[in-house]
Amino acid sequence: MNGVDPAYITQADWKSVSQFLVPLWMILGSGLGLGFSILLAQGTLPSLAASRDISAATARRARPALYLASAVFLAMGLFSVALLISRMGTVSDIFYRGAI
Fold it and tell me: What residues of the chain score a pLDDT lower than 70?
């Protein structure tokens, strides 16, 4: 058989890879949440208030909650990046072992 033998990736390695993928999904979720909350706070609410689809008082009350949500999503994103960096050794362990 020609090519790379996948037998060097053990079950423990697959578990490490699955734990490595969790922060990637967390980064995606936090990025989408951050973008959505900022878009609502900065774009949609002022537009709805200007067109009088919602009252200006409602827009003023909703914006701080959306800014708080964006801060939470930003903190979650930064935590996810730190977690991803701490689990980076998984990739080098598998690829260096396979290159030998």
Answer: 1-7, 97-100
